[in-house]
Amino acid sequence: MTGLTVLASGKGGVGKTFLAVTLAHALARRGRRVLVVDADLGLGNIEVQLGLEPGIALARAIRAGLDLRRLVRRHEACGFALIGGSGSGEALAGLTTARLERAVAGLGELADGFDDVLVDLPSGLGRIATTFVAAASRLVVVGNNEPTTLTDNYAFIKLTRGTAPIPWFLANDVADATEGAQADGTLARACRRFLALDSVALGHVRRDPRVPEAIRRQMPYLDRSPGGLAAADIEKVAKRLARPLDQPR
Ligand SMILES: Nc1ncnc2c1ncn2[C@@H]1O[C@H](COP(=O)(O)OP(=O)(O)OP(=O)(O)O)[C@@H](O)[C@H]1O
Ligand SMILES: [Mg+2]
User: Fold this and answer.
1) Does the CB atom of residue 144 touch ligand 1 within 6 A?
2) Which CATH number fits the domain that encloses residue 68?
3) Is residue 143 part of a domain?
4) Among the atoms of ligand 1, which is closest to the Cα of residue 230?
């Protein structure tokens, strides 16, 4: 069973969307069959980051009870499949919890046709994020070394721990490996001490001015900056994610 790997964070703007797309790209380059899902329903921006025309918005499809297989598109240049989320926020109105849960279960079934399914979540503790986290087989918590991110991510983990799988920390936008380890370590210690919760350090991705530049140009970062600082780190993280979940970490 492939299961869903969700990218979440308590705080917004930490790089979930960039990482979901770029990790999917790196995994696809390793020859894996990858699906990336924009679950930032109504406010999705994976299609914008990649410069694609929006397809059927996931929120609209869920509300209408459509078969989610109809939404899967291929990004030929990146070599992965995609379910986009673009669309106006109004599509969220009328999205019942029952329909949302059914859709998440449907994605879980769809996942079996892939080696990796990466789900880009909205930040915070809204219903969409918590529903996906509860159904995920792997929870990647994206953060950085800022105290506001650390406290928001700690709150996120604390409030989802009854239903969520153990958190895998991914430090983004850090100066170097030391700062990445500091960000991960602070959160890991707090989880262990106050929540008696184990976690996994997935790695770090360095700050790279070529990331915002690629996004501004709506181009895949790995194509634009294959030798970039963040590219080397993302390759390492992708390699780690590609290992089966039941193998030693
Ligand atoms: N490693 C990095 N180096 C430099 N800039 C980065 C890096 N990662 C992300 N960014 C910048 O951070 C900004 C936010 O990234 P992104 O939109 O992926 O965050 P997000 O967590 O998905 O935000 P939201 O919570 O709003 O969905 C982007 O404009 C991007 O340029
Ligand atoms: Mg995002």
Assistant:
1) no
2) 3.40.50.300
3) yes
4) 1
